[in-house]
């Protein structure tokens, strides 16, 4: 039997309000509020049950539904406040109005579930302090029983309870009929576009996936061991439901985190703190070994508040929780998962890590305990571990928890703390600060070009939180570490990253031979959605998703890997490197060969054409947000590698293959992603190269030809017999300090072994140099010279660090030694001149400055050198 159809006159108020602020409208009637609650609940059920055809659409539906849910909760809280504060005669009218609404022809049986929390709270308040009349109490209890029957019915045979429901005043229909009805009321694209227009700046949590390791400020859940879970409950405390959850946790002897909303715990007025009666549930939780955590004071979108208001939200809640527990709070979860760098920094400053989740039980949307359990266990079957998100304010959560804990036990899962340890305490780990290095222009390329794309705010697709910040981070490292010039970095963000703009830059700007030359390099970075389409042939084809691509017809405006292959062929640069922070498959590539550039290998890979790609993961994998410094896990690892960690053989050059070899296993360890890297079809065995700052500390100007000649000369000089090399050093302080104890050992090593050891210590020395730790830098460079004394790069760097350490006499010796080893190393003449000036040997500096300008007339330091020479006449 079908219920009455919803009247056409039912108002749809939801999308006329601002979801970014969740400001509640003034409703013309109480019935209008009830209609709005039903409308919200219907949209939630529509989005979560309408059969999205890909994982991204499913995530999109979940995020919008979560916001609808929270808005619905605010309306329910507003209704509850009215019931509790109105005079008895007005309340009686409202209760009757509410009862009549739920039995009107506007409402289907399933709609009544929208009000389960409201009815539960009204009856809870009455049980603690009776205030309802007998008529009101009878009406509310009847509604409670009807809703419980509806819940039960949708999990059992519908025919058994139909007649009983009809006699109770509600017409029952099969659940699928209700869902079919919702399909006639809404379309996804309409909801998507309207939502984006109403909430264009709302940070969206966990849309591309979620992950971080335990050393980050953000904790998502993949860093714990397999077969472990963390139980977390948001939005309480609630007198009845939190108490029931604590009973179940005690029965199963497991512990959990309770992320409390401050206003439910009490109030703070200056130094005056007043606890609510619900705070007793947190005191009990603490006494039974659970962890109390901060979920803000009023559950706002914190990223939309001023700095002061954000701080007050966190501090007032911490004050209340410390009043309850007597200890500092170390964990924080932002409402709605909405976060930004400022908020993460604030939580860090207040001594808290931000705890997210990677498995959403959807107990906030699903009224059926059985399906909540099935959903969580299905997610765990794929993810193997994680932080589980529940809410201790819902009856369905109370009902689902015992069955969930039974299922976890049967499957061998253990409940642990957020660090994956047996549940006893929460450690407060913080990320280490990463040193920055000075930029250096490439010695191996002509010009360096980049196209950097990041899309958070899509027209139809789910909004992202990290992509734009990922793009900014990549641009910064290219510009500040590798010397890419601002005017040669093209940045497309959000609505500017349309298909037209992306293809314009790839097919025209970067493919223009009058602009991009054969000796240039082009770096292309994309952060945003990716999608895989299975072709009729069975082959997978990957796509990147521009701002304006439709969700269900993405291939019409998306950019496929085939297109990218074509664009790469059009670009005249010698080396092109695509780095894609999105997941898809179907990339035609071959694995890159080789590790870091060294010796003759550098000459080969620098001269051959290269078309290479590195992607964040394969098809059906979520890009894991939540990496270091507000980046995705993939981009976080990418930036870490580009800062120098990917220089696997420590020769101060990172190849694209090295970068892939560094990033891929680390991303896989910290997420459910498996990055892929290799050569695109048509690559000729070359390698895209990143010269670490500094390859040779003062050398930022050599052309590729000069650089390669210097490398060849270096190889020739490295063939000098070891004893002769050491003899050349016998009169230096290094010989006295280092040689005597190690000469015999070094002489037993092969030339290749000595070079590798020298590279190892050379790399360490440069790292200390970038940290301005000159003492340790010089020590490591001493050791490097022991293994490879005729290496002009090491010799130059040792002299230059001595100069920086103001040991000018020793610096002059080693800089002059560099010229003996490699007369083509032009900047060393400038270094020698500067050293002579520091030693006040001004006349001797003149010829070195003159020669420097003769061979490098376009030097950016020309004005400084000319000023000195003019002053000397």
TrEMBL record:
SUPFAM superfamilies: Caspase-like, Glycoside hydrolase/deacetylase, TPR-like. It comes from Reinekea marina. Keywords: Coiled coil, Hydrolase, Metal-binding, TPR repeat. InterPro entries: Caspase-like_dom_sf, EF_Hand_1_Ca_BS, Glyco_hydro/deAcase_b/a-brl, NODB_dom, Pept_C14_caspase, Polysacc_deacetylase_ArnD, TPR-like_helical_dom_sf, TPR_rpt. Residues 227-416 form the NodB homology domain. TPR repeats lie at residues 758-791, 826-859. This is Polysaccharide deacetylase family protein. Pfam families: Peptidase_C14, Polysacc_deac_1, TPR_19. Residues 698-732 form a coiled coil. It comes from the Bacteria.
């Amino acid at each position: 039997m079908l219920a009455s159809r919803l009247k056409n006159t039912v108002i749809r108020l939801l999308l006329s309000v601002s979801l970014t602020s969740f400001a509640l409208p003034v409703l013309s009637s109480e019935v209008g509020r009830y209609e709005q609650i039903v409308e919200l609940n219907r949209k939630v059920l529509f989005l979560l049950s309408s059969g999205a055809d890909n994982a991204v659409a499913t995530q999109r539906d979940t995020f919008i539904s979560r916001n609808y849910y929270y808005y619905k909760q605010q309306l329910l809280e507003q209704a509850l406040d009215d019931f509790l504060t109105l005079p008895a005669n007005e309340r009686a009218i409202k209760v009757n109005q509410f009862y009549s609404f739920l039995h009107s022809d506007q409402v289907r049986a399933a709609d009544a579930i929208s009000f389960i929390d409201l009815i539960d709270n009204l009856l809870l308040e009455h049980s603690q302090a009776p205030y309802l009349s007998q008529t009101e109490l009878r009406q509310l209890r009847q509604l409670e029983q009807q809703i419980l029957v509806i819940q039960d019915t949708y999990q059992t045979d519908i025919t058994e309870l139909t007649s009983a429901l009809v006699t109770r005043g509600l017409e029952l229909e099969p659940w699928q009929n209700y869902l079919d009805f919702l399909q006639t009321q809404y379309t996804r694209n309409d909801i998507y576009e309207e939502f984006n227009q109403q909430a264009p700046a709302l940070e969206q949590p966990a849309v591309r996936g979620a992950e971080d390791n335990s050393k980050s400020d953000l904790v998502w859940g993949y860093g714990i061991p397999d077969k472990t879970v963390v139980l977390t409950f948001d939005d309480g405390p609630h007198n009845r439901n939190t108490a029931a959850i604590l009973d179940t946790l005690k029965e199963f002897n497991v512990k959990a985190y309770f992320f409390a909303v401050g206003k439910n715990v009490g109030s703070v007025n200056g130094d005056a703190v007043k606890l609510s009666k619900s705070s007793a549930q947190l005191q009990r939780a603490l006494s039974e070994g659970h962890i109390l955590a901060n979920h803000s004071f009023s559950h706002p979108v914190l990223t939309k508040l001023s700095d002061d208001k954000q701080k007050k939200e966190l501090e007032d809640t911490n004050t209340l929780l410390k009043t309850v527990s007597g200890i500092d709070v170390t964990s924080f979860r932002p409402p709605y998962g909405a976060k930004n760098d400022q908020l993460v920094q604030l939580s860090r400053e207040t001594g808290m890590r931000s705890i997210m989740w990677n498995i959403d039980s959807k107990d906030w949307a699903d009224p059926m305990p059985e399906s909540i359990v099935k959903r969580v266990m299905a997610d765990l079957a794929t993810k193997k571990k994680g932080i589980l998100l529940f809410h201790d304010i819902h009856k369905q959560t109370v009902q689902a928890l015992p069955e969930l804990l039974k299922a976890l036990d049967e499957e061998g899962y253990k409940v642990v703390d957020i660090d994956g340890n047996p549940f006893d305490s929460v450690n407060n780990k913080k990320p280490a600060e990463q040193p920055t290095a000075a930029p250096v222009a490439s010695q191996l390329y002509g010009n360096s070009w980049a196209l950097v794309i990041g899309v958070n705010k899509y027209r139809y697709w789910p909004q992202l939180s990290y992509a734009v910040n990922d793009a900014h981070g990549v641009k910064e490292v290219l510009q500040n570490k590798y010397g890419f010039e601002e005017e040669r970095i093209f940045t497309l963000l959000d609505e500017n990253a349309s298909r037209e703009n992306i293809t314009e830059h790839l097919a025209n700007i970067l493919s223009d031979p009058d602009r991009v030359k054969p000796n240039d390099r082009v770096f292309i970075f994309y952060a945003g959605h990716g999608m895989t389409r299975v072709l009729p042939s069975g082959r997978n084809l990957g796509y990147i998703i521009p701002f304006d691509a439709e969700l269900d017809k993405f291939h019409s405006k998306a950019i496929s890997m085939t297109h990218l292959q074509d664009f790469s062929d059009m670009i005249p640069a010698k080396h092109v490197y695509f780095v894609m922070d999105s997941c898809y498959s179907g990339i035609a590539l071959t694995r890159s060969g080789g590790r870091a550039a060294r010796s003759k290998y550098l000459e080969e890979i620098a001269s051959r054409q290269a078309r290479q790609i590195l992607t964040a993961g394969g098809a059906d994998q979520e890009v894991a947000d939540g990496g270091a410094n507000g980046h995705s896990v993939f981009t976080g690892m990418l930036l870490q590698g580009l800062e120098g960690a990917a220089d696997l053989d420590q020769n101060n050059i990172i190849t694209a293959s090295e970068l892939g070899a560094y990033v891929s296993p680390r991303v896989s360890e910290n997420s459910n992603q498996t990055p892929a890297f290799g050569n695109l079809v048509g690559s000729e065995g070359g390698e895209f190269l990143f010269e670490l700052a500094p390859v040779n500390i003062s050398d930022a100007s050599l052309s590729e030809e000069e650089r390669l000649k210097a490398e060849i000369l270096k190889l020739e000089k490295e063939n000098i017999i070891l004893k002769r090399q050491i003899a050349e050093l016998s009169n230096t302080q290094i010989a006295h300090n280092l040689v005597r104890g190690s000469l015999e050992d070094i002489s037993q090593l092969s030339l290749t072994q000595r070079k590798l050891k020298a590279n190892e210590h050379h790399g360490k020395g440069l790292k200390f140099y970038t940290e301005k730790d000159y003492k340790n830098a010089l020590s490591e460079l001493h050791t490097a010279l022991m293994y490879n004394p005729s290496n002009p790069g090491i010799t130059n760097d040792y002299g230059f660090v001595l100069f920086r350490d103001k040991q000018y006499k020793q610096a002059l010796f080693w800089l002059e030694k560099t010229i003996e080893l490699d007369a083509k190393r032009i900047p060393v003449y400038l270094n020698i001149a500067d050293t002579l000036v520091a030693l006040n040997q001004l006349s001797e500096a003149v010829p070195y400055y003159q020669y420097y300008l003769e061979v490098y007339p376009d030097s950016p330091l020309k004005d400084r050198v000319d000023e000195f020479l003019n002053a000397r006449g």
